[in-house]
Write a structure and sequence with these properties.
Helix content: 25-40%
Largest sheet: 5 strands, antiparallel
Structural class: alpha+beta
Number of helices: 2
Shape: rod-shaped
């Protein structure tokens, strides 16, 4: 009994005189590994991506943002066709960024939702 248990757990070939282990038992650990990867890695990442898309879709003029490059500014306009954001960095400087370059958003109570670039 002890040798059979060890051969199943270690995937060792059976000792002479014993029956071969069921191939289904050898596939079960691979299936369990896939299930664990799905629930602990793939599924949370998909949920996080959907939440990020929701936040980027709710972006509006007046929101203070930080880009992935560390640039701080205020949203001055949004171009939904090109998926870009016009960011006012200082009184005279405006820079255009891709929406995906936005790392953090601080929502403002005032401001209107934009659908075209200004």
């Amino acid at each position: 009994m002890h040798n059979t248990l060890l051969s199943l757990l270690l995937f060792a070939p059976p000792v002479a005189g014993q029956a071969a282990p069921n191939p289904l038992i050898q596939i079960v650990p691979l299936v369990l590994i896939f299930v664990v990867f799905y629930f602990f890695m793939i599924r949370p990442q998909q949920k996080k991506q959907k939440d990020r898309e929701k936040v980027l879709d709710s972006l509006k003029r007046g929101d203070k943002i930080v880009t992935i490059g560390g640039v701080h500014g205020t949203v001055a306009g949004i171009d939904t066709e090109k998926k870009t954001v016009l960011v006012q960095v200082s009184d005279t400087t405006k820079i255009t960024f891709d929406r995906t370059a936005i790392a953090n958003i601080d929502k403002q109570d005032s401001g209107d939702k934009l659908t075209t670039k200004e």
